[in-house]
Amino acid sequence: MEICRNGDALQISELDPFLAELLRQIPLSTNPEGAPAAEERLFSKPSAEKEICAEWKSYVEPELQRIFRSATETVADDLAQLNGNEKSLGNRVLRIPVEHADAWLNTLNQARLVIATKYEFSDEELNDHDRSPIGSRRDLGLFQVNFYGFLQEFILREISG
Fold first, then answer.
1. Which of 43, 53, 83, 107 could disulfide-link 75, Cβ–Cβ 3.0 to 4.6 Å?
2. Using 50, 70 and 90 to split pLDDT, how confident is the model at 114?
3. How large is the average pLDDT for residues 37-42?
4. What does the domain layout of the chain look like in residue ranges?
5. Which of 117, 103, 109 is nearest to 148 (CA)?
6. In degrees, to the nearest 5, what angle opens at C-alpha 110 toward C-alphas 104 and 114?
7. CB 23 within 8 A of CB 79
8. What residues form DSSP beta bridges with 93?
9. Measured between alpha carbons, how far is 5 from 138 in angstroms, rounded to an integer?
10. Distances (CA, A) of 145 to 61, 129, 131, 142
């Protein structure tokens, strides 16, 4: 996989089918359904006071949900470039318009929070970047969290100049 900036787009090329599939899973990975702790993590309470939390839930959460949904839709639309024949992925380029960078950062962050919460990764596990073998679905989840973090780092570096 190669990743670079080309004018007004970030480009990911030379994709193997495994990494392409992880990219395609980004929008699905943002869904906290069935994991109340993940939903609590995405929509954390601002205070211990019930009244403040009730107002937050009524006025702020719906807008956060809209922002999250919009960002995820933008990413899903960009990822449509990867649909099709897996054998030709090596020649395919995923172009992410720079103006979509915020949506990508938002969506990657959502996915990382949801995955990390669902698998209850410890700080030690999240900081162990030398861990390599993928022997279980949980290991794959940790790989996803790290891969998505790498993508966030690249996007931030490129848009910051």
1. 107
2. very high
3. 88
4. 2-159
5. 109
6. 145
7. yes
8. 13
9. 32
10. 24, 11, 12, 5
